[in-house]
Write a structure and sequence with these properties.
- The chain has 131 residues and is mainly α.
- The protein folds into two domains: 93 residues, Orthogonal Bundle (434 Repressor (Amino-terminal Domain)); 38 residues, no CATH class.
- The chain is 59% helix and 0% strand.
- It has six helices and no strands.
- The longest helix is centred in the first third of the chain and has 18 residues.
């Protein structure tokens, strides 16, 4: 169903606000992992408990506009970043391959030695061109 379709009984949009909350949570998690931040570090940066940060990422608790703005500042993105792809209605659960790619990006970002990053990047390019 698309966001404009209505449920038969209630007449409300079929894509409830909870779906959007989960989508925003997934986007927060993706960006946090890309930056190499743990959930605890993220929680500390935005001034909430680990449990609250976890609930935000799972879409269990709604995020106020002010808190979303604060999260965007901490993660270095605009607020609109969290809503990108909402129209596509993608599945909020990451596939095993997506998790692996996010983990790879996080680990790469944690490498402090630029030379090591360059070598690893070159290795990835070589492996990608193999048939």
């Amino acid at each position: 169903m698309t966001m404009t379709q209505k449920t038969p009984k209630s007449g409300k949009p079929a894509n409830r606000a909870g779906d959007i909350d989960r989508h925003v949570g997934v986007r927060i998690r993706e960006r946090r992992v890309m930056l190499g931040l743990s959930q605890q570090q993220m929680a500390d940066l935005i001034g909430v408990t680990y449990q609250q940060a976890h609930k935000y990422e799972r879409g269990i608790n709604r995020i106020s506009a002010g808190r979303l703005y604060e999260i965007a500042q901490v993660l270095g993105v605009s607020v609109s970043f969290f809503f990108e792809g909402v129209e596509e209605q993608r599945d909020p659960d990451l596939s095993a391959r997506q998790r692996m790619c996010l983990e790879l990006a996080r680990n790469f970002a944690m490498i402090n030695n630029e030379r090591h990053q360059d070598v690893l990047s070159h290795l990835a390019r070589v492996l990608a061109t193999e048939s």
